[in-house]
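Everyone, describe these C-alpha cells:
***
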Amino acid sequence: MPFLRELVHHPRKLLLRRVFFQIHLWAGIALSLYMVVIAVSGSILVFEDNLTATTLPAGLSRYDPAHIASIPEVMQQFAQVCHGCIATYLIRPYPAVPAFQITATGSQRNEINFVADPVTAGGEPLPRSEE
C-alpha cells in the first residue's frame, strides 16, 4: 500500500510520473517538429506558382492566351541558346506563371532551367540557386 499512499498524497515524487512526463515531453517535441515540416512543405506546394512567378526575369511580355508563341518556335530558340542541351520537360505559360519553362540536361549531365518569353519565344537560362 505504500505505492498507493504515495500516489494519493505525493504524486510528484513518484519515479513513474517523472518517466511518463519525459516520454510525453520528448514525444510532443518530436511530433511538433514533424508537423512543422509537413506544414512548411505543404505551403511550398500550395504556393509553388507564386514562388515560381517571383523568380522569373524582368521584361517578359504580358500573358495573352491569343498571342502565345508555338512550341516549335520556343524549341528552336532554346536550341540556339543552349547548344548540345536536351530538353526533358516543358511547361506552357499560364496566368500564374506567364512564361515557357524548359528543364534540360546539359553536356556535362547537369540540369539547366530555361525561361522563354510567351510571345517572342526568346529566352535565357536561369541561374541555379542550389549550387
Notes: The chain has four helices and four strands. The mean pLDDT is 82. The two ends are 67 Å apart (CA to CA).
